[in-house]
Amino acid sequence: MKKVTSLVLSIVFLLTLFGDTSFAQSASLDGKIIYRADEITDIDLLFERAKNGVTDETDNNFKEHMSILGAVSDNDVIRHFSTTQKLLEVKKNNETIENFKIVSFVVVSENDDSGIIRPFGSKDEEQWDGTYGIRAYSTVYFTRSRNGNLYTYTLDSVSGGWDNIDSQYRLSDRHVRYGVTGNRAGGGVVVKHADKYPTGNSFSYDATSAMSYPVESKVVMGLNSYITIKRGTDSTWELAHQNNLEYNN
Hints:
Keywords: Signal. Residues 1-24 form the signal peptide. The protein is built from 2 helices and 12 strands; from the N terminus they run ββαβββαβββββββ. The chain is mostly beta strands. The protein has one domain (29-112, 137-247). The strands form 3 sheets. Strands 2-4-5-6-7-10 form a 6-stranded antiparallel beta sheet. A 4-stranded antiparallel beta sheet has the order 9-8-11-12, with no helix packed on it. The chain has helices at residues 43-51, 123-126, and strands at residues 4-14, 32-36, 63-73, 76-92, 95-110, 134-147, 150-164, 169-184, 189-196, 202-206, 215-231, 235-247.
C-alpha cells in the first residue's frame, strides 16, 4: 500500500459556491444586439482555451474558487483550469444584458517521477504534456444585467461531467448541488439549491423558477460536484469540484 497524503488545494482565479446546453436564451432579443458569439460546445476545445488562459471576461468583481479535499495517492497530480465565454450582449433602453458561461476543469493525472506534486506555474508544471486519467468539468450559465451603476445576476443553468480514460481509476457516488444565494433587486433574499445524483458521467440542469430571480449583492451562484475516486488498491478519495460565481458588492 502506497503512502496516502491529504491534499487541500485552494486556488483563486479571476471570476466563482455553491452542461452541455444550447445557450441562446435569457437576454431578450427585442433590444439592440451589441455582441453575439457562436457558443463553443466542444469540451476539448474549451479545455484547450482553459489550458491556454483564454477568457472573455476580466471583471475584477468576479472570483472563482476551486477546492479539492481528500486523501490522494502520492502518484496523483491535480490541476485546475478555467475559461469564460461571452455569448451575447443586448442593449435595451437603459439596460445592458450579457450572457456568459464559465467552464471549469479539474484534471487528475499520474505523476511521472518520484511522487512530487509540482507547484502551479513551475517549470516542471509547464512541461506537462496534457495527458490525464480523470477530467472533471462543469459549466455555469448566467446573465448579468447593468442599469447605470446597478448590476444584477441571474443563474440560468449548469452542466458538467467526468471523463475517465484510465482504467486504474474507478468512479462512484456522483453528487451535484447547484443553486443561488443573494439579495434580490428590489428587496428580499434568495437562498435556493437543489441536490442531484447523476447515474452517468454527465449532467445538465436548468435553474428552477425559485432560483431565477435576479440578485444584486452578496451573490453566490453555481455548482459543486462530488465524486468518489478509487485508484487501484492504493487509495479512495472524494473529488469536490467547485465552480461558482461570487459578487460581494
